[in-house]
From TrEMBL:
<dbReference type="Pfam" id="PF00201">
    <property type="entry name" value="UDPGT"/>
</dbReference>
<dbReference type="InterPro" id="IPR035595">
    <property type="entry name" value="UDP_glycos_trans_CS"/>
</dbReference>
<comment type="similarity">
    <text>Belongs to the UDP-glycosyltransferase family.</text>
</comment>
<dbReference type="InterPro" id="IPR002213">
    <property type="entry name" value="UDP_glucos_trans"/>
</dbReference>
<keyword id="KW-0808">Transferase</keyword>
<protein>
    <recommendedName>
        <fullName>Glycosyltransferase</fullName>
        <ecNumber>2.4.1.-</ecNumber>
    </recommendedName>
</protein>
<keyword id="KW-0328">Glycosyltransferase</keyword>
């Protein structure tokens, strides 16, 4: 670790979602190891949910009110209200904290902003502070948005389910492989946010974009944008699960074994590569029908499982509504929360049935765990495409003509991934290959470490 440079301090502003918070915490730690001081900022909606903030020299937390502070009661359909409030309050906060530090004679060297916070980049431009974009989804997804807002909107929106679209540098994509937001109304706040990101990219030349991926994983996708240098600096997951050199560097600086509870005992009791792990992220409200089909699929498989089932927003308990809960209780274990990166490292894991959020995808990739991909929305659809057809570390479930993913399909895909067949063996072999490549990328002379060092020395330190 390099000595902290008192003259090099950055402000990192991120959207208050767990999918944003977790990689940004790791990114902050990586910057600090290179001598950069970081002020990490997002709204109280996120900070009020974090029970164990890391205490690290060089890392300062500076939360602000978003007007709701964790008490937003609207549905996903009303989330634009939250985002508007977050943006208004955040703009005032960022402007004030930048001005205060400048008056104190210790200005921020740069503002770094993340996915869904293009307004930070726009504000930085207005107040003449240099900024850098940290994209926390695959480079492929950023490329798709770039194409979409640079002449390909009609081609993408009119792509039928039986048609594939060829975009330079990307795999062939069908309608089900595109991020769901590209099919949203043009006024949808998420699509507007993506458009703002692309407009910022179009507005400058020779800028660097940091991406939570690594060179070997998305070699071509990282080179698609002609006026931008995309730098793979991932996987942004705790170093304890990449190189093992710092066992204290786990999620939010907490010892994972202490957080596991009795589900660690459950995993310890199972044979190697025997357990099916099921989890659908922090915010995904899984429809009751999908829950039932997953449950019945697990019953059909008759394999031990660990399933994270979160309570509903009003305290509902989805597990209690399942028609086969007695059979499930005999086969496996359900929990309301677990330390996912730790679970994925456990030798009893056979596969991961996942919604394909990018954090989950990267964590499983770095752990060498094969996937059953069940994407729901946003970038998850594209991630599932990459998992099945490009990296070949899993299989994607298919819906029937009515759009329902049936129990037999879940059982079929699980058996492919964990079974003794040729395809399962290939998937497991690929999973281990990408695990090793992910770890290599984060080594001292690995591509991601070299890319981040170059960014720090050339951009932040000006050497």
């Amino acid at each position: 670790m390099e000595t902290l440079n008192d003259d090099c301090h950055v402000l990192l502003v991120t959207f208050p979602g767990q999918g944003n918070i977790n990689p940004c915490i790791q990114f902050s730690k990586n910057l600090i190891k290179l001598g950069v001081n970081v002020t990490f900022s997002t709204s109280l909606t996120a900070f009020n949910r974090i029970s164990n903030l890391p205490t690290i020299q060089g890392l300062t937390f500076s939360p602000f009110s978003d007007g709701f502070d964790g008490n937003f009661k609207g549905s996903m359909n009303n989330f634009h209200e939250f985002n508007a409030s977050f943006r208004t309050h955040g703009s005032e906060f960022v402007k004030n904290i930048v001005e205060d530090r400048t008056k104190q004679g210790c200005p921020f060297k740069r503002i770094i902003y993340t996915t869904l916070t293009a307004w930070v980049g726009m504000l930085a431009k207005n107040i003449n502070v240099p900024s850098t974009f940290l994209w926390i989804q695959p480079a492929t997804v950023l490329d798709i948005y770039y194409y979409f807002f640079n002449g390909y909107e009609d081609s993408i929106k009119n792509c039928s389910k039986d048609q594939s679209l060829e975009l330079n540098g990307l795999p062939l994509l069908s309608r089900r492989d595109f991020p769901s937001f590209v099919f949203a109304d043009s006024n949808d706040w998420t699509l507007v946010a993506m458009k703002e990101h692309v407009e910022l990219l179009n507005g400058e030349i020779n800028q660097r974009v940091l991406v939570n991926t690594f060179d070997a994983l998305e070699f071509d996708a990282l080179k698609v944008l002609k006026n931008v240098t995309m730098l793979g600096i991932g996987p942004l997951i705790p170093s304890a699960f990449l190189d093992g050199n710092d066992p204290s560097d786990t999620s939010f600086g907490v010892d994972m074994r202490q957080d596991f509870g009795d589900y660690m005992d459950y995993l310890d009791s199972k044979a190697k590569e025997s357990v099916v792990y099921v989890a659908f992220g922090s915010y995904s409200q899984i429809p009751n029908q999908l829950m039932e089909e997953i449950a019945q699929g697990l019953v059909l498989c008759k394999r031990p499982f660990l399933w994270v089932i979160r309570e509903g927003p009003n305290g509902e308990k989805p597990f209690e509504k399942l028609s086969c809960k007695e059979e499930l209780e005999e086969l496996g274990k359900t929990v309301s929360w677990c330390s996912q990166v730790g679970v994925l490292q456990h030798p009893s894991l056979a596969c991961f049935l996942t919604h394909c959020g990018w954090n989950s995808s990267m964590e499983s990739l770095a752990s060498g765990v094969p996937l059953v991909a069940c994407p729901i929305w946003t970038d998850q659809l594209c991630n599932a495409k990459l998992i099945q057809d490009v990296w070949k570390t899993g299989v994607r479930v298919n819906a029937n003509d009515e759009g329902v993913i049936e129990r037999n399909e879940f059982a079929r895909c699980i058996e492919i991934v964990v079974g003794d067949g040729e395809k399962g063996e290939e998937i497991r072999k690929n999973a281990k290959k990408w695990r090793d490549l992910a770890k290599d990328a984060m080594k001292e002379n690995g591509s991601s470490n070299v890319n981040l060092k170059a960014y720090v020395h050339e951009v932040l330190l000006g050497e």
